Amino acid sequence: MKSLIKKLKALRPSKSRQPSAAAAPDQAPFPVNDPPSTFSKPLSKLESLPAEIRLAVLLNLDINGLKALVHASPLYHQLYRAYRWSTLRGVFAKTLRDVVPDAIAESASRVIKAKELGAFSENYQRLRTLGSRAITDDDVSEDRVVEMVRFYRCIIHPLIEAYAQWAQEELEMKEPLSLSEQARITRGLYRIQLFFNVMSRENSRSVWVYFGSEYVLHWFFCRYKPWEIEEILCVHAFAMHMYDRILREIHDDVRPSWPKFTDPERKALDNEYMREDYIRGTIQLGLPFLQMILSRRSDYDYVVFTMGVNMCWTQHLDLYLLFWDGGGTVQDERRVKHPTEEDEMQRRRDPLPFQQDDLDATGPPLAWTIFWKGTYSNLYGYYIPTKLRLWGCFMWDGKRLRQLLKGKEDRDALLSLMDDRPEPVRHYAMEYSVGEEGDPRFRFDRDDDDGDHDNLQ
What we know:
Organism: Westerdykella ornata
Protein name: F-box domain-containing protein
Region (Disordered): 11-36, 337-356, 431-457
Distance between the termini: 51 Å
Helix content: 55-70%
């Protein structure tokens, strides 16, 4: 794709090659025959294709490729303007594939009220059954697609690259992301932002009071496969690391004693627990704020001012509370009050071997099947060592992971990677030993038989 974009940029014309007139968006007729006087120089081979094929070229690009082509060629820009709606819709679906429903849900949830969450959830489930075809849903307007494309280009795509760079910082092998790896990271980014949207400060307070945190875990997260939940938590680990680094860099200039910030609620960042709470709270501001800070990180004064004004304490329901607080207590309570078919699959130890990494990463990644020894597990968060998330363990495809493990496909080899990378916030994950005694699923087998989930620690 990079080589294609480079060639397309070479097509960018001088002012003398600009069209004499441009058709209005979505109103121009299909330019079957270009006027001979439109261009003063010969067209390139790509521009000389029949109009129908040129449209097919547009529809087979991803979002970044489309942007490069319409900026490089006035002829393709004219065609894009004439068929903007269908082109954007097709290109967006091709870029995100099965993540399209998550993108639609994220966009629709930004101003959602607590009383609307039930209907929203039902519609989200319906869209997920459609996959990439959800882009043709009647509720997805042209304005919505334009906004989703902008959000992908400005927020999601830069964070995909930032995540990949962070996760590979201390790995021996640094290679471009495969399509399956891109799918996992993209999915994790959209879904964590979706959670931030639906569990806003106002909504989370209402849901927490009336339903409890275990219901939120069931209602929102149990719609996903357990390894897909870990994708979300891998993105969470990335955000924790980024804010931890930033706060270390600007520590001296965001102290409560600094005259610019006189908020009486502001606590000292020197206090480890207060500092961790600020990190957790700032993460809840969402991905747009994270991307804004990362994109301006070289502007020290801007970062100091923006972080100083916006960083905040955690609010009610955050991911730490749901997945780690109390040694996985919320997960345990969810299993009692809201059991799922995945819990039963875990109890039976249904086989779950690694198959392959398809384009949409529909199956479990190799790291997941290695960690749970090829059988089903519905445990995540507290029950997964934090250090596995610090190098994107559950994002990588089989090829990359096998090269990292150097032929040793077992849990011990998996756990030995990245032992020295520090954790920005201590999550008190379960410790694992070799053998069956290191498998937390056995304790749930006992509890299921006894019907007693008390004193699980």
